[in-house]
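Can't paste images in this forum, so I'm doing it all in text. The chain is below; anyone willing to post the predicted structure tokens underneath?
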Amino acid sequence: MAKVSSCPGVSNCDRVSCLDSAFARKAAPSIELPWGIYEARELAEDPEIYIFENVRFGEIPERFGAPQFPSWTNSSVQPVSDGRNCIQIDPSVLKNPPGGENPIDAPEDPKEPHVPESEDCLFLDIYVPKWVFDEDFDGGLPVVVWIYGGAFAFGAKNHGGSVLYNGRGIISASEYQTIFVTGNYRMGAYGWLAGDYMQGVAQPNAGLYDQALVFEWVQNHISKVKGDKEQVSAWGESAGASSVLHHLIREDGKVDPTFKTFVVQSPAYQWAWDNKPNGGLDQIYKSFSALAGCGEEFDIDCLRESKNMSEANQELYKTVATSGLFLLGPSVDGKWITTLSPLAFANDKYWKSSIESTIVSHCTNEAAIFRPKYVTSEETFDQFLESFLPGSGAADQRAAIKKRYACRINFLGDWNKCITTVIRDASFTCNTRDLFSAYPDKTYMMRYAFPTKDLAHHGSDMAPLFTNNATEAYHMLTKNGMNETDATLYSAFLYFNRIPLAYKVYFASFAASGGDPNVLQQQGKAPTWPLADGSDGDFMKDVMTVRMANWEESAFVTDVEDRQNAKGTCEFWTGVAGAIAGSGGGSFIAGNNFGAEGQIPIEL
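Text version of the structure:
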């Protein structure tokens, strides 16, 4: 861990007062890049942190093209007002919005965005402890790079100016020993159109390449703000977490992602594998093309010249999306993603040589906000499976899913609860099992179950990570659809249980130490967080669970099994992936041990 050297002979606890007078006499620092100079400002909520806001890392990308660093030179100071966020959809007007009901990553006010939106949106923010600019400090601090969520359809590095994705809490909890970076990437059709046609004329998965350019920028320039490029940690939640996952499997794991540690919270995405000519991904392209005024044709030039892209992007999610999950996102493209992630991990096609430590977590009721309300019968259950795994070629797999989950037996005919569990396993929790299996001796696992298992919805773990007081938590929760009374109680109990302080210290310790969540001193009863143990049986053990505290025990408990990402369940889904993708996952036989009716260990 880096050592504060700004005030020689002065203890850490006196460091702030020591530096106040020194920094009062200094101008705010700047970072000089080939394409411009960017000045810092003092963060209003914490005067011990500088923020470099709207730092350009990419030039205006060609529509559907790969990103690149700016090609021009400029030696003048760049105005903060030049910054833009990427174009996003408004999920509030959709019947089945991607990201579920009231997603926490949705824009604050889509009609009046805090920051203008544009295709010229490749900007990042850097949060840096003020003390590192003291001329006596010549070291480098660890760097966290945050990738935001939002179902690959909405979101931004600064989330409309709200507390989400603000580096203040983590930096403060790390005792000002960490730098925090968050950057934009293209979303919706702009960033995630894929398929056979796109592979030949444009850049599929452009959003992943935008994220990779942020990591490359960090390697090239983070030292200019006293960051250490050898101590980079990739963090993300939901779509951001599954983005981190896909950086690990890039080109069959042959490309160094440049980060040494990572944190993934609720990694979520929907499989997209059909990149054959006129396959499922090409059909989405043609649907979008028609909405953009180019007809159902393969004409990339027409799309690049279209003047109603934003409207077409919004309309695509209205007319095509039916599942309420993720219409667009990481897709098999033959290069970055050669196969579905369960198969990549199962077949040892992922980056491993420089990964030193990981945190992998999920909420205990991930899929509640994603559940399709119309699924109330066997007929509608079948309809959902048809949209989830489409095509006649997946008929055997759909039948195997019905047999394995045995809704009439395991769920007493509650088809909605049954499909919610299917979604949880396939799109959320088995991603956490895959990551644990890839890094079994380096992974700290977490179940977020506050205040109860049923109320720990997808995204609720962002409250202890990013909010700094009960008022901030209240505003985050009401925005996420919680009524005012419940949000008041939730935020009050969250802070009464002192969960955010201990929670942030674990994560900040992981960041500042290079991968150990137990280095920084905790207050109260927070226990040592052990590495997870998956060596015996179907369930992982030694999983940190966050829950409502009682008078005798901490809100953090470690001697817990996780029954929501069982080994057998996730092997079943790997088998499904192998069968539908035909990418080396082994033969799938509906009647084998993966498909035993009524024998699935289910935690509801």
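The chain has one domain: 12-484+562-595. The domain at 12-484+562-595 is CATH 3.40.50.1820 (Rossmann fold).
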